[in-house]
Design a protein that fits this description.
The structure is a single chain. The protein has helices at about 25-30, 35, 50-60, 70-75, 130-140, 155-165, 175-180, 190-195, 205-210, 215-230, 235-245, 255-265, 280-290, 310-315, and strands at about 10-15, 40-45, 65-70, 90-95, 100-105, 120, 150, 170-175, 185-190, 200-205. It is of the alpha/beta class. The chain has two domains: about 5-100 and about 200-315, D-Maltodextrin-Binding Protein, domain 2 (3-Layer(aba) Sandwich); about 100-195, Periplasmic binding protein-like II (D-Maltodextrin-Binding Protein, domain 2, 3-Layer(aba) Sandwich). Strand 6 (about 120), helix 5 and strand 7 (about 150) form a beta-alpha-beta unit. The radius of gyration is 19 Å and the shape is globular. The model has no long low-confidence stretch (mean pLDDT about 95).
Length: about 325
């Protein structure tokens, strides 16, 4: 446990997220004082979907977004669904995870081919992991005309609609795939087992803000990284599960326990060092080059990331 720091002495930092267990690092960083140690008071904001999140980011309604890097790429290139035009200010400064994506279907559909003629739910048609879904289906022989797609919003919204029978399949991040299986739905595939490396969630911000608040960005990276290190320590397992359930009180204990093994998997779990997976980012760019509109070839990852802050966070005294 880190030493307590009075809130009045901390800098407020608004972090916008999609609700879910993949925010575990934030919960721990706040609970255990890792962010406070860096002089930061984290204010977590929840967003219902990527259109709202990216619109609010452009308007400066928060400082940092934890979001899929594909959202950043889409809006830099003017391919986002929100009518806000190209956003060259958007960039990613650290990586968090592979997004933990699984294709989940209603109880009567037990293989990907069974989704032919069915309705698939997405956050947005052109972002929010929709391209991952299209590619998984395509690799199984289902082209775009073989199924219907409907906008349904973020993870909670998609899970709620799928459970209510208002759709036949969707991509869900852990632990929603675990919750879905507990309710009798089927997990048909894990994205990384089909696509290979995939860069999912990142820490993102506006370039002008980040450049003017370099130490804040560095402090955020350090606090988040320390929280992930703490999560991976076996002796903290019980305490970690308790923190998750306090922040997600609707989560059953057995799902919280299973989430630990899923989100802290030694191969597929949270990134330990905050790095951005270059092979995973290349996959994101390849999918967007294939499915994005207007179509363009995207092959320069440096248009969407800036690793100066991550590198500085590793230097003593930075």
């Amino acid at each position: 446990m880190t030493a307590s720091v009075p809130d009045n002495d901390l800098k407020r930092l608004r972090v916008n997220v999609f609700p879910g267990g993949f925010n575990w690092g934030l919960y721990v960083g706040i609970d255990k004082g890792f962010f406070a140690r860096e002089g930061l008071r984290i204010e977590v904001q929840h967003t219902p979907n990527s259109v709202t999140q990216m619109t609010d980011m452009a308007a400066g309604k928060f400082e940092i977004a934890m979001t899929g890097v594909d959202n950043i790429v889409a809006y830099v290139e003017g391919q986002g669904e929100a009518p806000i035009g190209p956003q060259p200010e958007f960039f990613a400064f650290m990586g968090s995870d592979s997004a933990f994506l699984s294709l989940v279907s209603s109880p009567d559909l037990k293989e990907i081919s069974a989704l032919k003629g069915k309705q698939l739910l997405v956050d947005a048609m052109t972002t929010g992991y929709a391209f991952v879904l299209y590619d998984i289906l395509g690799r199984a022989g289902l082209l775009a005309e073989a199924y219907d797609v409907a906008r349904a919003g973020g993870m909670i919204e998609r899970w709620t609609r799928l459970r209510a029978g208002e759709g036949d399949g969707t991509l869900l991040s852990a632990p929603y795939n675990l919750i879905a299986k507990a309710h009798g739905l089927n997990e048909l595939a894990r994205a990384v087992e089909i696509l290979g490396p995939y860069q999912g969630n990142v820490g993102a911000a506006r370039r002008s803000w980040a450049n003017a608040n370099e130490q804040t960005v560095i402090g955020y990276i350090r606090g988040y990284r320390d929280a992930i290190d703490w999560l991976y320590a076996p002796g903290n397992r019980s305490d970690a599960i308790a923190i998750l359930r306090r922040n997600l009180p609707q989560m059953a204990e057995d799902v919280a326990i299973a989430s630990y093994d899923e989100l802290l998997h030694p191969k597929f779990g949270f990134y330990r060092g905050g790095e951005i997976d270059q092979a995973g980012l290349a996959c994101v760019l390849a999918l967007r080059s294939r499915y994005g509109k207007p179509q363009m070839t995207l092959n320069d990852p440096n248009r969407y990331i800036d690793l100066r802050f991550l590198e500085a966070s590793r230097r003593t005294g930075a």
